Amino acid sequence: MRIPAHSVCTAVRDDIVAGVHERGSRLTEELLARRYGVSRVPVREALRTLEAEGFVVTRRHAGACVAEPTEREAADVLEMRMLLEPLGAARAAERRTEAHLKVLRGLVRLGQERARRGSSDDLRSLGGWFHETLAQASGSPSLTSMLTQLRHKIAWMYVVQAPPSPVDSWAEHGAIVDAVARGDGERARALTALHAERATGAHRLRFTGAANRVRTSQHAVNTSGPRY
User: Fold this and answer.
1) What are phi and psi of 27, to 5 degrees?
2) Long-range contacts of 11-15 (CB under 8 A, 24+ apart)
3) Which phi and psi angles does 205 have, rounded to 5°?
């Protein structure tokens, strides 16, 4: 049975985000095919997709390698999320279905309950499901795909600390859902922008140091084209 390339792509991306494939390491088709139990064809397709997404780069004499993002690129990812998430919330206020609202409200109730109890173990995953559902409620597959890709990159580039007040964070989620339910796109946009801005302070880069500063400097003078 032929394994779809998108399944291989998901597996490789997940391993890159988790650090199984380290930054700068080579990704040979033969080794990846053995690791994931597939032929080299879906691996080749997956690597092309991951290169387009910015997780993989092709280097002369080395082939496909895990990308090494600079501090500037990491900052751009957060800035893009802060621009796109409010847009998604505004669209969700116009296009959400009752099914979307049911899921969003259920996640808010669960998140608020866990936050009040101090059960923080699964709050991060609940928050991820909340924002994924909110993006899907926008009714825009392209926007949803971009936001999902940004969340993958943020998880790869940053350590995200727990918010100082999870109860307040989930209260913000609840206010966003209320605005979406009322069809108030401008309020949903404004609340989501404020929520994203506050959340950004909890992000700490996974990579720092002189080597990264050198890469940042080199990237600034290299005008051959964007890396993603």
Assistant:
1) -125, 90
2) 11/36, 12/36, 12/43, 12/46, 12/47, 12/50, 13/50, 13/53, 13/55, 13/152
3) -60, 140
Helix (H, G, I), strand (E, B) or coil at 163: coil
Q: How far apart are CA 158 and CA 160, in angstroms?
A: 6
Place of tokens 């500063």: 213
Cβ neighbourhood burial of 139 (10 Å; 0-12, 13-18, 19+): middle
**How far is 21 from 75, CA to CA, in rounded Å?**
22
Taking the C-alpha atoms of residue 94 and residue 217, their distance in angstroms, rounded to an integer, is: 43
User: Using CA atoms in the order 17, 18, 22, 23, what is the torsion angle rounded to 10 degrees?
Assistant: 30
Q: Exposure string (b/e) for 144-173, b if CB count within 10 Å is 16 or more?
A: bebbebbbbbbbbbbeeeebeebeebbebb
Q: What is the pLDDT along the chain (228 residues), one digit of tens a residue?
A: 466 788 999 999 999 999 999 999 999 999 999 999 999 999 999 999 999 999 999 998 889 999 999 999 999 999 999 999 999 999 999 999 999 999 999 999 999 999 998 877 788 889 999 999 999 999 999 999 999 999 999 999 999 887 778 999 999 999 999 999 999 999 999 999 999 999 888 899 988 653 444 344 334 333 333 333
Secondary structure of residue 51 in the 3-state scheme: helix
Distances from the Cα of 94 to the Cαs of 81, 82, 88, 98, 124, in angstroms?
A: 20, 20, 10, 12, 27
Residue 26 in contact with residue 68, Cβ under 8 Å?
no
